Structure formats: C-alpha cells, structure tokens
C-alpha cells in the first residue's frame, strides 16, 4: 500500500507570514517598558543574544568562551551550571571528523551507536536516542546522517535539557550551530579530500558582503562514500545559501538547505560465543540489491534579533522542513551456530518509509536588568511545533510463497561473501506484522527563566517550562486512531559559586519528560496511550576553570534517574520494560591552548548505567562503556608546519540489554600533518588508526556490530581565495 504524503502548505505559509511580521515589527510597548526599567551596571556592553546571525570577527581555535545553547541567552560557559562540550569547526577539520559517531568519541559521557546502518544514533549518559539533535536550537529529529560542511561548531549539552529544548533530551542533546554570513570581508575556501579507501569529497564556502550591514554566504558539499567493508558505497550532496542583513536595530538571517544522501545499508556482523564474529570484518551480511537507504531533505530557516533597547532583546526562530527517508535491509538476527559441521545464521528483511513535514516557530524575550541591587537576565519564551507525516514498514519474506511469521526468517551458511536469497517484500495488511501510520504531532510550549547574580560571587539560575504535547496516530490498514495528550512541566535549578572571575563551582538539578511512543513518535496503541511519560531527573555538581583566556578545564559528577522506561529487547522488534534506570558518572575535559602553538582537546568519562527494576533489573544498560577517554593535540612547529596526534579509548560494553554479547575494549591512535604550501594553499594528511588496531566501533544489537576501520590515510587540500 502506498501512503499519500500530507502537504500542510497553508500552515507553512501562515508560519512564514507570522515570522515575517515578527521580524519586521518589534513591539514598541516592550521597548518603552525596558527604557523605564533599571539598567544593568556591567562594564561589558551587551550586543544581543546569539550574535551568530551576522559575524563581524573571525573565530579560531578549539575553545569557545560563550554560548546561548545552555540558557537561550548569551552566557559565558563558565557561568552555566551544566556540563557542556563544544567542538569547533577547526577541531572538526583538524581531526577530519566526518560523522556524528566520530565526533561524540571526543565527548565524555557520550558513545556512538550503529544506527542500523541508516542514521545517527548515540547514547548520552546512558540514554539512547535517534531524536535529540538540534540545529541552531531548533529540533532536527528526522533520522539521517548529519554532516559538518556548513557547521561553525557542535555543542553537546549533557543531562536533562527539557527546560531549554522541550520534550526528551533526557541524557543530553547535540546542537549544531551553522555558519553565518560575515560582514567583515569577502572570502572563500575550496577543499578537496580523498582517502585510501577511495572515498572523496569537495566543499565550498563563499562569503560576500553586499553593502553595509549585510552579507551573503553559501556552503556546499559533494561526497563519494566508501570504506573497508564489502560493496559499501554511496554519495551525498548538500547546499546551504544564507543571507543576513540589518534593519535598524534588528538583525535578520534567512537560509535554505537541501540535502540528499544515498548509500548501502550495512549493519555489521553477528556474534559468535557471545563476542562479535571475528575474521569477517569486510563481509556484508545482506543483499546488495536490497540493502540501501536514501534521504532527501529541504529546510527553510529564519532567525532574527531585535534590540528593543539597551537591555531588552526579542529573538525569533523559524523552521520549515520537508523530509523523505527510506531504507531497505537484509540483516543478521541470530548468533552464528554450527549445524552438521556447517556454520549458519538467520537473517530477516524489511523496508521502512518515512515522510515528514515539520514547522517550528520560537520567540524569546530577554531582559537584562537590576532589581533590588541584583543583576537579572530574565528570559520569557514560547514555541510551537507541528509535525505531519506518514510511516510504513514492509516486511520481507523468503521462499516463493507465504507471508507467515515462518517465512520471515531465512537460515544461511556463513561465508566470506554471503549468499542470501533475495527476499520478497509484500506491502499492505497481508504482510505479517506490516504497519502503516499517519502521524500528527502538535506541541505548544511556554517557559521562563531567570539568571540572578545574588552577590558578586553567587549566581542562581531557575527556570520552568510547560509543554502541551498532543500526538494522533492513525492505522492506515484498519482505520483506527489513537491519541494522547501530555501536559509536561520541566523545571531546572542551579546554584553557581565563583571564587574568582575565572573559576566556578556549581550544583544543579533538571527534569525532562518523553511521552511513551518512542523518540520518533511513529506508533501508538491501546497500551502506549495509558503509560505515563518517561521521566529523567539529572543531579549534577561540577567545577569550571579558565586556566587562561583560551584554555578551559571542566569537571562534573552526576546521577541521572530515568523512570517508566522501555528498551529494545533481545529479539529484533521487541520491547522490554526496564522500569527505573540509574546512570552515575564523572566527566573531565581540558580544551584550548596550552601554549600559543599547542592546542589540546582531552576528555575522560566514567559512566555506570544500570537497570534498577522491571523485566531486566540488575542488568547493565546497552552500549554504555564504563570508561571512555579521548585526546587530540595540534602543535604548530612553524608557520608552515604543524603536527597532530590523538588517542581514543573505549572500555568493553554489552551490545544489548540482554547482557549476553560483549563488545571488546579498544584503543586507537590517530595522527595528522599540516603543511602551509602558500598563503592561500594548505595541505593536510590525516592517518586514522595509525597502529592498525583491530576493533569494533559501534553496535546496535547483539547481532549488529560494526567492525572498525583499519589504517586509513586521508589527504585534504584547501584553497583560500
């Protein structure tokens, strides 16, 4: 059965119209109110929240001093009572990081998942997610592989984040900050790169000022995909033009992005004797003609900042996204076993189709004032989200006839090149366990937050968010519909003590909720509508120290409790109730310049995640290594020469909540060489896995474990103009 795609164009047009009105007409009454209020006595002039709309100075290095992601206000990282990791565009380029999975290896407390070979999937403080991704602070939850061609930096905020980001975010969120037009001058850069597996890419970044207070920037990429695995290939391309300009005291940015991604779906290797199958690091356990995925996305983004007065700022954000995603796969569902002297395993197959349109509007009013002798940064905001989509799962069957459960599994012999019969994909209700749904999600949110300087050394942050979350899911086959509405209150509170201007100690608590329907909200039934939302409580203490203006040391210890939770079961497609889950951990990080010519990014995470009750009480949470560590150094030997050296370590972990299959620990060494060939040409050589470690990089389940790549050499040449 083919699903028709909803096209709420009128909603999109209405959103555009409302956004345009907000952009062009700040409220004069609010400005008058602000002019009558006490003004902040601060030596540093305030120039508006989120100054990334129109850049007027270049940013270099690995360290970031300020962010608006953690509070929705422009705040020094040292003054935010929360663990935050930031990877800048320079560090991402220096390490030749090409995926979210590679990026989070540099983030304490976060580990990559295998994502069934078709999407980004990560575990933050013991909580697995495919949806806790954001772009410029707005939700970016459609399943896909994200790239960094147009990214200024990536911020990973750990702990429960619903007060700032809304539903979910129980273990943390990943927020990509996109590049903005630069009014300071014209520039461009063209990069070309190729690696020893045959993968290559090109990126383009061109910025042009177009009059006083305005600039245009366009970023683009094309990439051919390849790696160490049999038959893996693919390509992706994207383009992102943006325009930024000023109108009086307002700054406005409008951008459009188109993304296409086509690749082979590779879900890795099965297990043998409770360990990943060894000796088949290149084998595709699928059918080349049936293992593929495609993504097509279009997004319109707009942001504005209105300086209503010297102390009052109104900012708005808008997103309209239109996304199509499919994947088809044959994959292992059993461990390898020996039958009559022959090693065998089972496989299954299915296809999945998702179509989604997303409309998000957000407005924030920030007032910096002094009341009763105390400085306040008061935030009041509102957000509305509408998502309309369809999803369909079509199961595959083996044999010439039959659509029963027995036909869904095929036993095959183990071989270096697998010979698997092509499955029959039978759409519609005739197929066993097929499903098709239409989904409508509406969310309306209001929130308030106050950052209070109680004394010169003591600061308090307190906030509360209300979300009205409505989900309606219709079964296309039967015509039945299920709905649920949740009213969620998500608080946060933090107390921060500053012994001096360059250090802080803090304690904080925050809470998030996730309505029961999975993080993609693609299914709802009579059971799910009765279940209470999952709840996440994060308790955290920490310390931050600006060792120098460009070197930051942070430490955090936390307990994160999750209740009313579920997890993927040991049998594919099943769910087990895990009741309560607790994660305890410590995160340490050192980022920035140790010396003028030496930059470092180092981190360590201790993560102890356990199920406390429910069907799997006492088990370890899946895909959570107890210890993880990362280190990257760049040292500039001279103006023309720099070297890089790094290490990534990950302890062993269980691939699934069954706690049966163990993914071994590994340590990988990476290196780089940077050459300035002229004032406009740079060359970069990266070597991943310099010592040739044999390891497994990520897992999705007991039978889907991805072998890590052997030594890979990448050459990149950069042309500036």
Automatic annotation (TrEMBL):
- Gene Ontology terms describing biological process: siderophore transport
Q: Where is the TonB-dependent receptor plug domain?
A: 77-173
Keyword list (alphabetical) reads: Cell outer membrane, Ion transport, Iron, Iron transport, Membrane, Receptor, Signal, TonB box, Transmembrane, Transmembrane beta strand, Transport
Q: Which residues form the TonB-dependent receptor-like beta-barrel domain?
A: 278-690
Its main subcellular localisation, reduced to a broad class, is membrane
Q: Which InterPro entries does the UniProt record give?
A: Beta-barrel_TonB (IPR000531), Beta-barrel_TonB_sf (IPR036942), Plug_dom (IPR012910), Plug_dom_sf (IPR037066), TonB-dep_rcpt-like (IPR039426), TonB_sidphr_rcpt (IPR010105)
Does Ion transport show up as a keyword for this record?
A: yes
Q: How does it sit in the membrane?
A: Multi-pass membrane protein
What span is annotated as the signal peptide, if there is one?
Answer: 1-31
In Swiss-Prot or TrEMBL terms, this protein is called TonB-dependent siderophore receptor
């Amino acid at each position: 059965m083919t699903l028709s795609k909803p096209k709420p164009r009128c909603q999109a047009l209405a959103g555009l119209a409302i956004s345009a009105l907000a952009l062009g007409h700040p409220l004069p009454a609010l400005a008058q109110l602000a002019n009558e209020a006490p003004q902040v006595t601060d030596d540093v002039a305030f120039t508006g929240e989120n100054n990334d709309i129109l850049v007027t100075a270049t940013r270099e290095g690995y360290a970031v001093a300020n962010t608006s992601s953690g509070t929705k206000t422009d705040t020094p990282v040292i003054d935010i009572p929360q663990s935050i990791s930031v990877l800048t565009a320079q560090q991402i380029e220096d390490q030749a990081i090409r995926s979210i999975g590679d990026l989070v290896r540099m983030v304490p407390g976060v580990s990559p998942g295998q994502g069934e070979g078709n999407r980004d999937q990560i575990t933050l403080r013991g909580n697995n997610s495919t949806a806790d991704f954001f772009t410029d602070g707005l939700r970016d939850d459609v399943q896909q592989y994200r790239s960094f061609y147009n990214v200024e930096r990536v911020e990973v905020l750990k702990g429960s984040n619903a007060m700032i980001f809304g539903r979910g975010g129980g273990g943390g969120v990943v927020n990509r900050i996109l590049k903005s037009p630069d009014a300071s001058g014209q520039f461009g850069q063209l990069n070309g790169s190729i690696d020893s597996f045959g993968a290559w890419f090109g990126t383009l970044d061109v910025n042009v000022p177009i009059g006083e207070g305005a600039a245009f920037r366009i970023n683009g990429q094309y990439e051919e995909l390849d790696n160490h695995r049999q038959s893996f290939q693919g390509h992706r391309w994207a383009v992102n033009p943006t325009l930024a300009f000023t109108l009086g005291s307002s700054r406005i940015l409008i951008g459009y992005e188109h993304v296409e991604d086509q690749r082979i779906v590779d879900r890795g290797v099965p297990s043998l004797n409770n360990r990943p199958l060894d000796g088949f690091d290149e084998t595709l356990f699928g059918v080349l003609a049936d293992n593929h995925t495609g993504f097509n996305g279009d997004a319109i983004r707009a942001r504005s900042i209105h300086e209503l007065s010297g102390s009052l700022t109104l900012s708005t954000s808008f997103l309209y996204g239109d996304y199509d995603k499919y994947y088809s796969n044959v994959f292992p569902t059993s461990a390898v076993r020996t039958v009559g002297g022959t090693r065998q395993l089972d496989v299954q197959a299915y296809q999945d189709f998702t179509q989604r349109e997303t409309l998000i509007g957000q407005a924030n009013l920030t007032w910096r004032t002094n009341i009763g002798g105390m400085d306040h940064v008061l935030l009041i905001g509102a957000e509305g989200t509408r998502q309309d989509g369809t999803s369909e799962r079509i199961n595959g069957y083996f044999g010439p006839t039959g659509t029963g459960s027995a036909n869904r599994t095929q036993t095959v012999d183990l071989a270096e090149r697998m010979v698997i019969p092509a499955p029959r994909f039978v759409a519609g209700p005739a197929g066993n366990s097929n499903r098709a749904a239409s989904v409508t999600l509406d969310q309306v949110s209001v929130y308030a937050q106050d950052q209070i300087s109680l004394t010169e050394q003591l600061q308090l942050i307190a906030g509360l968010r209300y979300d009205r979350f409505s989900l309606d899911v219709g079964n296309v086959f039967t015509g039945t519909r299920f709905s649920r509405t949740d009213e969620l209150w998500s608080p946060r509170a933090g107390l921060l003590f500053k012994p001096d201007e360059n250090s802080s100690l803090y304690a904080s608590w925050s809470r998030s909720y996730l309505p029961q329907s999975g993080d993609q909200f693609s299914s709802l039934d009579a059971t799910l509508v009765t279940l209470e939302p999952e709840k996440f409580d994060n308790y955290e203490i920490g310390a931050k120290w600006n060792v120098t203006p460009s070197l930051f040391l942070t430490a955090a210890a936390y307990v994160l409790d999750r209740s009313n939770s579920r997890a993927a079961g040991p049998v594919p497609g099943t769910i087990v109730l895990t009741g309560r889950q607790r994660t305890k951990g410590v995160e340490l990080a050192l980022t920035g310049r140790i010396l003028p010519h030496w930059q470092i990014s180092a981190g360590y995470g201790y993560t102890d995640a356990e199920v406390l009750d429910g069907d799997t009480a006492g088990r370890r949470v899946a895909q959570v290594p107890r210890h993880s560590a990362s280190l990257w150094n760049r040292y500039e030997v001279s103006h023309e020469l720099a070297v890089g050296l790094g290490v990534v370590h990950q302890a062993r972990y269980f691939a699934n909540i069954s706690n049966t299959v163990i993914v071994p620990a590994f340590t990988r060494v990476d290196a780089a060489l940077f050459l300035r060939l002229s004032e406009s040409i740079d060359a970069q050589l990266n070597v991943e896995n310099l010592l040739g470690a044999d390891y497994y990089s990520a897992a999705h389940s007991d039978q889907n474990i991805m072998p890590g790549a052997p030594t890979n050499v990448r050459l990149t040449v950069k042309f500036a103009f």
